[in-house]
Structure formats: structure tokens, C-alpha cells
Amino acid sequence: EKGGYDHFMLKEIYEQPSVIKDTYRGRLHANKGIIQMAGVEDNLEKFTNARRILIVACGTSWHAGLVAEYIIEEFARISVEVEYASEFRYRNPIINSDDVVIAISQSGETADTLAAIKLAKEKGAFVFGVCNVVGSSISRETHAGAYTHAGPEIGVASTKAFTTQITVLTMIALRLAKAKGTMSNSDYQRYLLELELIPEKVEEALLSNDVAKTIAGIYKGAPNCLYLGRGYNFPVALEGALKLKEISYIHAEGYPAAEMKHGPIALIDEHMPVVVIAPKQNHYDKVVSNIQEIKARSGKIIAVVTKGDTQVRALADHVIEVPDTSEALTPLLTTIPLQLLSYHIAVMRECNVDQPRNLAKSVTVE
Ligand code: M6R
């Protein structure tokens, strides 16, 4: 049932090229310049007239929501707010009838997310679900939605759900950009073609497995780890840190790289591994100077870079390469080596990778 892999998590990491394809199949027609998702088409005006989009989710799904915030605001120029469902539901939030709420949940059963949806509906908002489990409570409770088609995710640590959620949300952003005329035709077309190439690029990113394993062997005993990223890759830093803490029990923190100097830099010494997500587009020069600041304090740098990178390679202790793509799509690739790194560290620490202590696959209690 694990398809020859030692753990479900590893199997699910390796499924990503094919499930991302399943997610966009029948929806993305790059050569015709079309994105078609029934749940969006049927409610297109609600989206295009939305004064803002509120995203509610928990855990990894919340991280996918943060990536979507950057993408939707950039592409469709609609204001987006992302909230932990647990905070949203208990703070008497302001919800208007011209707000669109997007709830993201792999299981479709997360209690806090479900409660946030009910609250948003009571206040008159249109609620759209992005779920993986077909027929789940959240998919039934929402007005419309789009499934991720990732197939069953068994490992408690979410992997393929995350990348397929980002795929769905990117398609929504592109569809809205087209409807609102907020993106040039050439950019729109370029993004569609790039999105179609993502599965083969994820396949290539998976070739980082051996490097990730070597790096895991070096840092498996670290008590702490920092993850830094900027822009579209700031949420990837959060996700990388969550993956490491939940399966390896190493304390890890994700930060926007520029926040380093506002506190966390005090933690840096020769024992602190710092994972820096540094693809060539995203504020590259700024990330390079963040790396220099860490090196000046003897921190150890593990950098995720674009294939062929030389500048970061010269500074970092270790580099992991991913293929080049359009800036907004980089999270789909930079996430892959971070999943592999956490996986190998957890295996080396003899942790229960698929069922980490204290965790359940779906959190149906608040
Ligand atoms: O099923 P959901 O997407 O609603 O679950 C949300 C979180 O419980 C989930 O992402 C959790 O954080 C994962 N264990 C992360 O790997």
C-alpha cells in the first residue's frame, strides 16, 4: 500500500508530479489560454465583485492560504486577508456580504475551519471551499468549491495536499486576473504555460533527494533550525519549519528573512542551521545580504537555489537546486527539498514519520 516506499509521507512526496497534473487536468488549457473551474465559473461575479477575499484555514492549509494571498493580490488585485480559522471564529470578525471567504482544508473535517465557515455564512458571505476529501463536511458546508484531487493523504505531515492547494488557488487567481483584466495577456499566457510545466519541474526538484539526505545526516542532531524566505517564499519558510518540527521534533521557526535583524539574529551561532529559500527572482539580492549577515555570525547556511546559481553557492555551506520557473510559481518547487529534508532527518532520528506523537490527521476537536 506504500507503493514500495518506506513511509506514506515519502510516497506522497513523490506523487506530487502526478497529482498536480490531476489537479489541473480538464481545468487548465494552456494552449487555448483557458482556465475553467465549474465552481469559479458559476460564481464568477461574486469573485470579481468581491471587495476582499478572506482565507480561513489551519496549519499547512493556512500556509497555502498565505501563498495565495501573495498570488491573488498580485494577479487579480483583490485585497486578501488570511486568518487562522481558530482566531477568526472567536473574535467577532467583520464580514460583509460582498466578501468572499475561501476555506482551505485537506481533510474537510477540521473543526475550527468548519466553525469559521458557519460563522461567515451566517454573516452573509459567499463561502468557497478548497478541499481534498470528496464529500467531506467542509465541502458540503460551503456554497461552492474546487477539489484538489491529490488522492488520499495518509501521512500526518501534509505534503501533496499543500502543493495541490497552491495549484488550485493559482488557477483561481489567474482566472480572476483574466476576468478583471488585471494581468497582461502575455503574462497570463506565460503563467498558463509555466503552470503546465510544473509537474515535470517537481519531478526534477525531487532529484534533490540524495543531497537532502546528505544534509540531513549532518544536521540531524541540531536542537534548533531557522527557515528564512521572502515574498512568495516566506510562507514556504513557515511550511518548511512546520514540517521539521512536527515529524522530527526539532524546534524550528520560519521567518520572513528581513525580520532576522529584529530579534532572531541573536540566536545565530556556529551551531544554528539556517535554511534559506533563495530562488533567483524573489528579492535575490536582499536574500544574499541576509545570508551574508548569517555567515558573519558563523551560522550554517542550507540554501535552496535556482539551478545554475553561483552567487549563493559561493556563500552557503550547502545548496539544493530546483529548476527555474516564474516567480509566483516558485513555492511549488522550493517546497519539495524542504519536505525531503524533514523526512530524512525524522527517519534518521527514528521518529514515527507517518504518525508523529500527539498529532492526528484531522483535527476534529477545537
Ligand atoms: O485537513 P486540514 O487541511 O484542515 O488540516 C489542517 C492542519 O491540521 C494540517 O495542515 C496540519 O497542520 C498538518 N499536520 C501539517 O502537516
Tally of DSSP β-strands: 12
Structural class: alpha/beta
**Helix segment tally:** 15
Order of helices and strands: HHEEHHEHEHEHEHEHHHEHEEHEHEH
Mean pLDDT, nearest integer? 96
- Ligands: 5-amino-5-deoxy-1-O-phosphono-D-mannitol
Strand order of the largest sheet: 4-3-5-6-7
**In angstroms, what is the radius of gyration?**
20 Å
Helicity level = 40-55%
Shape summary: globular
Largest sheet: 5 strands, parallel
Q: How much strand?
A: 15-25%
Question: How would you concisely characterize the structure shown here?
Answer:
The protein has 366 residues and is an alpha/beta fold.
Description of the molecule:
There is one protein chain. The protein has 366 residues and is an alpha/beta fold. Helix content is 46%, strand content 17%. It is built from 15 helices and twelve strands. Strand 8, helix 12 and strand 9 (251-256) form a beta-alpha-beta unit. The two termini are 31 Å apart. The site of 5-amino-5-deoxy-1-O-phosphono-D-mannitol has 17 residues, from helix 5 and helix 12.
